[in-house]
């Protein structure tokens, strides 16, 4: 059974924590992450079956009130999204690296999911807001053609909302730059 994820972003940290408490009390979901982000916001991702996640996100929206920035649900998320959010893994070999940068958090998760579903690439990291001034980025690796196609998929997902900052493909990355990817 595939997992669903829901994301809610708040302008208020205190309201965010309060709303997330209500989200997990009223729906059978697990917290993937619930944390402060730059600049002084709160962001939560929950997972579970589609109905529970939809219910949880609706509750989050209701309790957020005027502090709601954005919310989204991905009904069947690519399983590789979870380790990328958790901090990433450095692959042993990289033919090419893709980096996508966005002005928002939840839409970047949607973009990363679209990449992982569209092409055969391996996620490195999905960083959401911490130490980034409210921005986010997704790094992934694969062969040059797959990474290039993945970049196009992510750009298409982010440009719909005008949230793309930049995206790059690095063919044959130098071993000296690889440690900076995590």
UniProtKB/TrEMBL annotation:
Family: Belongs to the bacterial microcompartments protein family.
SMART domains in the record: BMC (SM00877)
Name assigned to this protein: BMC domain-containing protein
Pfam families in alphabetical order: BMC
InterPro entries in alphabetical order: BMC_dom, BMC_shell, CcmK-like_sf, CcmK/CsoS1_BMC, Micro_shell_prot_PduT
Superkingdom assignment: Bacteria
Subcellular location: Bacterial microcompartment
Primary site of residence: other
UniProt organism field: Halodesulfovibrio aestuarii
Entry keyword set: Bacterial microcompartment
PANTHER family in the cross-refs: BACTERIAL MICROCOMPARTMENT SHELL PROTEIN PDUJ, PROPANEDIOL UTILIZATION PROTEIN PDUA
Stretches assigned to the BMC domain: 4-86, 96-182
Any one cellular-component term (Gene Ontology): bacterial microcompartment
């Amino acid at each position: 059974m595939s997992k669903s994820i829901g994301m809610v972003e708040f302008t208020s940290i205190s309201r965010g924590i309060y709303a997330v408490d209500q989200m997990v009390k009223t729906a059978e979901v697990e917290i993937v992450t619930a944390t402060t982000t730059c600049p002084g916001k709160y962001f939560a991702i929950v997972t579970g079956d589609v109905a529970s996640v939809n219910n949880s996100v609706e509750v989050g929206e209701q309790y957020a009130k005027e502090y709601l920035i954005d919310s989204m649900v991905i009904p069947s998320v690519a399983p590789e999204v979870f380790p990328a959010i958790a901090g990433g893994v450095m692959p042993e070999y990289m033919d090419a690296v893709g980096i996508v940068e966005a002005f928002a958090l939840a839409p970047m998760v949607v973009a990363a999911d679209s990449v992982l579903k569209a092409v055969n690439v391996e996620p490195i990291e999905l960083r959401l807001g911490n130490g980034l001034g409210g921005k986010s980025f997704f790094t992934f690796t694969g062969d040059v053609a797959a990474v290039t196609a993945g970049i196009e998929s992510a750009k298409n997902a982010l440009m719909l909302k005008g949230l793309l900052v930049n995206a790059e493909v690095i063919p044959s990355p130098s071993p000296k730059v690889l440690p900076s990817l995590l």
